[in-house]
Design goal:
By secondary structure, the chain is mainly α. It contains four helices and two strands.
Length: about 60
C-alpha cells in the first residue's frame, strides 16, 4: 500500500518524495526527530511511522 502525503500543490507518494530529496533533507529530519542524519535517513527509507508522519513533539533546535 502506498502512503500518500498532502502538500499545498498535490499529494505525493513516498517514492516521489525520495526522488525529490535534496542535500540536507535528512539532516533537517534528524534535527526534528532528535537523532543523527544517517539514522533519520534509515528510518525514513524503511517507512518508520514517526519519521514519515510529521507528528513531532518538540521544535527544531535553532
Amino acid at each position: 500500500m502506498k502512503q500518500r502525503y498532502k502538500t499545498n500543490q498535490s499529494v505525493m507518494t513516498i517514492e516521489e518524495i525520495k526522488l525529490k530529496t535534496q542535500y540536507g533533507d535528512y539532516t533537517t529530519l534528524g534535527q526534528v526527530l532528535g537523532i543523527n542524519a544517517p539514522a533519520a535517513k534509515q528510518r525514513f527509507l524503511r517507512g518508520d511511522q514517526t519519521a514519515n508522519s510529521g507528528d513531532i513533539d518538540h521544535p527544531i533546535p535553532i
